[in-house]
Amino acid sequence: MDYRLIHFNSARPAGEFTFDNEFVHIFLAILPRIFGDADTFEGIHWHRHGLRQPDGRWRDLGDAFPYATDLGVPDVCTMAGWASLEDMRSFVYNGRTHPAGMRRLQDQLDRSQGPGFVMWWARREERFTMEDGWERLTHLRQNGSSPYAFSLDQPLIRPQVA
Q1: Reading across the β-sheet that carries 3-11, which strands appear in turn?
Q2: Is 39 helix (H, G, I), strand (E, B) or coil?
Q3: Where residue 127 falls among pLDDT bands split at 50, 70, 90?
Q4: CB count, 10 Å around CB of 77?
């Protein structure tokens, strides 16, 4: 049985989710380049993206706007399956577009909910929804790192192939 690393991250912009918000403007401008790089990166199996509204409903990132400000600020989420922890780190920290883009946005994130990034090992054939990723992130925020949901600060090694 082969395993892959799943990661889920959530970025909540500080301020309202409108085009006037610098985070929203920059984030949406750089996403096509980051997604294009992900599509050609050998160590990534798949990636998907969405908005989680405060009421728990999900929207496709392509349908982010119009967004009614009375809904509250959403979490902009990404989930991906990776061949290894090293591949994920390589893309996130050394890739062509992701590191520079995310550095530009670090000061514009609302981090009041706790960690915004969670990982877990899964059998290659397992499938996950964005809500599954949100549940793992919530588990990490409430319980700390475990085999079910762990952080980059406390990564777990890949389970042995059975």
Answers
A1: 58-60, 44-52, 75-82, 3-11, 117-123
A2: helix
A3: very high
A4: 23
Using an 8 Å Cβ cutoff, are 4 and 83 in contact? yes
Q: By C-alpha distance, which of 13, 9, 36 is closest to 23?
A: 13
Contacting residues for 123 by C-beta, under 8 A, at least 6 apart: 1, 2, 3
Entry pTM: 0.86
Task: State how far the Cα of 45 lies from the Cα of 80, in Å rounded to an integer.
Answer: 7
Residue 28: predicted pLDDT = 79
Is the CB of residue 118 less than 8 Å from the CB of residue 8? Answer: yes
The CA-based dihedral angle spanning residues 37, 100, 73, 89, taken in that order and rounded to the nearest 10 degrees: 60
Q: Are the C-beta atoms of residues 3 and 147 closer than 8 Å to each other?
A: no
Residue 92 burial (C-beta neighbours within 10 Å; 0-12, 13-18, 19+)? middle
Q: How many other β-carbons are positioned within 10 Å of the β-carbon of residue 5?
A: 23
Kindly report the length of the chain. Answer: 162
- Can you tell me the distance from the alpha carbon of 46 to that of 38, in angstroms, rounded to the nearest whole number? 8
* Rounded CA separation 27/8 (Å): 17
